[in-house]
Amino acid sequence: MIEWWYNGSMKTKTSITISDDLLKLIDANVEGENRRSAFIEEAVKAYLDVLKRHKRDRRDLEIINRLSDKLNREAEEVLSFQKDILQ
């Protein structure tokens, strides 16, 4: 159960190890003090959104592939109606 006082923006202090080169790139793209954490948090959120979108796209493609014969038959039927109207 989530407590009534819980705020989704509560932070947990943690430590990560990253290469010096990556840290330099991060520092070159942040402004102000203590912005590394915010930058890394936003980057991770964006990456997780990409992973979520890829997972959804893979699932959608599996469904389309599984139903492709049926969908193709339906498309051919619709096109035949259009052909009859145009003639």
The whole-angstrom Rg is 25 Å
Shape: elongated
Number of helices: 3
Tell me what portion of residues adopts beta-strand conformation. under 5%
- Taken together, the total number of domains comes to 1
- Structural class, by secondary structure, is mainly alpha
Distance between the termini: 65 Å
Low-pLDDT runs = none
Structure description:
- The protein has three helices and no strands.
- It is mainly α and 87 residues long.
- The protein has one domain (20-28, 35-86).
- It is elongated, with a radius of gyration of 25 Å.
- The N and C termini lie far apart (65 Å).
- The model has no long low-confidence stretch (mean pLDDT 87).
Secondary structure elements and their pairing?
Elements: H1 20-28, H2 35-66, H3 68-86
For the structure shown, list the relevant keywords:
87 residues, mainly alpha, 3 helices
Please sum up the structure shown.
It is built from three helices and no strands.
